[in-house]
Amino acid sequence: MANSMEEGKNGISVVINTYNAEQHLAKVLDAVKDFDETVVCDMESTDRTTDIARQYGCRVVTFPKADHKSAEPARTFAIQSARNKWVLVVDADEIVTPELRQVLYERTGQPDCPAGFFIPRQNMFMGMFVRDFRYDYQLRFFIREGTEWPPYVHTWPTVKGRVERLKASKQARLLHLMDETMHEYMAKMNEYTDNEVEKKWQKGYGLGALLWRPAWRFFKSYVLNGSFRMGTRGLIRSLMAAYYQFVLVAKIIERRYRG
To answer: Are 242 and 215 in contact (CB under 8 A)?
Structure first.
């Protein structure tokens, strides 16, 4: 746990949503052991997830799994289960670097600190960390009070107050350990696009969106973000990002046609 100087008004709770997340959980929890509190919000796991969490002294709360396909429906409940002013949301396959922890405590003690931060994250793909020009920024650090997370995949929480991108050293980041196979990626794509249709089906997507959204996503990933530096891996990654958009728009159009 953090020392007493860091507790109180600048205390930070780490919140982790889990479902059958034993694969990386011990590494994840070891990396956040020096924060003021770690809350694991579990969606009725059937593996050793909650046992590992309790071994690390985490406070475990439960959110019913029901038919939920992602963690988003449980996010707000998890955040509001924290006891400190500040919350850092970490997935069960993300490592918080020591440099990131240090920067977060420093920033919360400054008078000009905003209400939330987009945190840089470095992802893995086909066995290597992504070598983009830009990190994958995630809105994961914010004041707990008043924050709500929409129950849809690929959404940002609503934070009361100003939010900024964290300006820190290259080492202050989240390391995303998830390295899905193509089979796993395709299965998750189906789940995620189904979920996104629920929040976007009323958009007027047609032939134009079916063409330009995948093209733009490929250009953004491969050229602007620098995936070309990863060789064949980067090309595959950018094409998959484009295909995700194609599938999403196609499902939205299908829903409109079917009424």
So the answer is: yes
